[in-house]
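Quick start: what a row looks like.
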Amino acid sequence: MHNAMKKSFILISALFIFLSFFSCSHSKELAEDSSELFTIKSLVSDIENDTVWSLELEGDRLTKAVKEDVPYIPEGHTLTTENVKLSASIKPPLYPAFKDFASLDISSLEYKHLESAAALSSYLADWEQEKLFSSFPSNYRFNYIFFADELKKGWKDNFDQAFPESKPFDRWILGQPALLDNLIQIPVRFYCNTAYVDVTLYMSPDKEKTLYNIKIERWEKHE
């Protein structure tokens, strides 16, 4: 009987030691997990506090229903890859524009007219006088003389420099044309160093690389 009690005491003691060890070990793991969670939370908070958020762009559009913002998608339908492709073919494209110049949409120009405008603009930019002069029909060549005189005088008056007789402009852009039955009016902006000159080309719709007139619209010098 004494031996049985002694064995029971030893078993109970061993169980107590095991439970105590398990409890301590588990508490240590919980403490380590809590410490790790606290560290991650602190890191996330630091990132949030140090992040500079940009202002929301077109936030009002994000709250609109698709049918209001995209009227060509029927009501009750959602955006999918297929109808986005379809809507892109229906919705007109957007083109950049300069408020003091014109839209850069030249999609209405036939290729032959676009090619003519590009060639004539190159003649002017490089100041190829013979080619530019020959672009005018004989009964309109007086317009070339008036334009050349105005360009040279205006250059001196507006840019305080003598007109360069070779390549006065380094680049140019075409604006949206006006297409009439017997005339094409197309704005062109010519750039030189820190300035630009806006002109309108009056082109023949029937004869390629043919000009009736060139009109200077604006001189602009950037300080």
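That is the whole record. The two ends are 112 Å apart (CA to CA). The longest strand covers residues 211-221.
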